[in-house]
Amino acid sequence: MADANIRIPAEARDRLAEVAAAEGMSLRAYLARLADSVLTPAERAEQAERARQLLHEWTGYDPSPDEEARLDAELDRRLVEAAR
User: Fold this and answer.
1) How far apart are CA 41 and CA 47, in angstroms?
2) CA-CA distance, 29 to 66, in Å (whole number)?
3) What is the dihedral of CA 80, 20, 14, 82, to 10 degrees?
4) Where are the domains of the chain?
5) Do residues 16 and 31 lie in contact, with contact meaning Cβ atoms separated by under 8 Å?
6) For every one of its 84 residues, what pLDDT tens digit does the chain have, with 9 covering 90 and above?
7) Are 16 and 27 in contact (CB under 8 A)?
8) Which of 12, 20, 24, 76 could form an SS bridge with 30, CB 3.0 to 4.6 Å?
């Protein structure tokens, strides 16, 4: 695979290099791993739909759109609270 140059702010590069080093990886290897693991919005939506289908098959649970929205809001609230 050919290498590519990507221009980012030096601060972002330094932060990514720091994270990579903490993982025992080069920045190049870390970014390659990141690219392999990150999902597009469409891929995340597809994964979420598969999870909902499996949940329904396994448990019969089938939340309504309103219930999903309420649960999403509650999860967001808890994540904000946990980050404090």
Assistant:
1) 10
2) 42
3) 10
4) 1-38, 41-83
5) yes
6) 788 999 999 999 999 999 999 999 999 999 999 999 999 999 999 999 999 999 999 999 999 999 999 999 999 999 999 999
7) yes
8) 20
Query: How far apart, in whole angstroms, are the C-alpha atoms of residue 72 and residue 81?
Result: 14
82: number of Cβ within 10 Å: 7
Return the amino acid letter for 63: P
Polymer length of the chain: 84
Say which DSSP state 70 is in: H
The per-residue pLDDT for 1 is: 73
